[in-house]
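ok, trying the design again with the full structure, not the truncated one.
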């Protein structure tokens, strides 16, 4: 059985890779690293995952900064899931004199963030809050869209950059969902390119029985899944128009 305490898990063998060579040829200006501090899948996992201690997290970040001079850390964790841990994490960054030595981003849920949490993220060096993948059919829910709008606006007010990606794949997707999602992106100046839904485990798009391992693995390793009434070619065109914010042309697509 895996250990119940994430702190006892070994750290990656960073020293066996010539990381400086990767940085030298990277198209990204900053030297960037991705970390996951919690033993669970972000957003969708029902497993009650465990976080690394804030001390272990701070020690890892101190090592990466001093050894490899990382400028930017991408956290794959939902920092709004356990606000108490997040508050303690920023406290530990301050204790280890890490504030201001690098920038970072994290994930969060629109219905869980508030101004107090966002302000603490900013104080800790966070510059981007990623609200993840949101299905275009979410535009049917006035409450969900109000929460999303509130989260985006609060994030900007605090001085952070909000990021989100609409996904398309639900069988119920129609022209109304597409145009409403695009109108939202334009109104919030968030013209990020939408994505076709992926059959991630435990989502509604992963339909193969896990007991049939071959079919299950084949599906979850697929690059995307399209259960809409639009063809793949139509869907790719819709995504391109959404990324441009071209509402005039989207209004002319066939309804389903």
């Amino acid at each position: 059985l895996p250990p119940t305490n994430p702190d006892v898990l070994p750290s990656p063998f960073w020293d066996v890779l010539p990381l400086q060579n990767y940085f030298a040829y990277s198209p990204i200006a900053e030297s960037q690293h991705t970390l996951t501090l919690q033993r669970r899948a972000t957003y969708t996992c029902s497993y009650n995952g465990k976080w690394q201690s804030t001390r272990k997290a701070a020690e890892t970040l101190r090592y990466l900064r001093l050894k490899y001079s990382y400028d930017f850390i991408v956290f794959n964790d939902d920092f709004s899931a356990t606000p108490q841990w997040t508050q303690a994490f920023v406290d530990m960054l301050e204790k280890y004199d890490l504030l201001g030595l690098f920038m970072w981003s994290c994930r969060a849920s629109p219905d869980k963030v508030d101004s107090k949490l966002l302000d603490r993220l900013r104080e800790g060096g966070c510059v981007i809050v990623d609200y993840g993948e949101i299905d275009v059919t979410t535009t049917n829910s006035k409450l969900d869209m109000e929460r999303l709008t509130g989260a985006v606006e609060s994030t900007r007010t605090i001085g952070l950059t909000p990021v989100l990606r609409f996904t398309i794949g639900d069988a119920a997707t129609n022209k109304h969902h597409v145009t409403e999602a695009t109108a939202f992106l334009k109104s919030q100046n968030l013209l990020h390119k939408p994505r076709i839904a992926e059959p991630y485990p435990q989502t509604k798009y992963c339909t193969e029985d896990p007991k049939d391992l071959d079919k299950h693995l084949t599906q979850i390793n697929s690059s995307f899944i399209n259960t809409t009434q639009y063809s793949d070619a139509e869907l790719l065109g819709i995504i391109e128009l959404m990324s441009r914010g071209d509402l005039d042309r989207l209004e002319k697509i066939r309804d389903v």
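Keeping the full-length input from now on. Confidence is low (pLDDT under 50) at residues 42-47.
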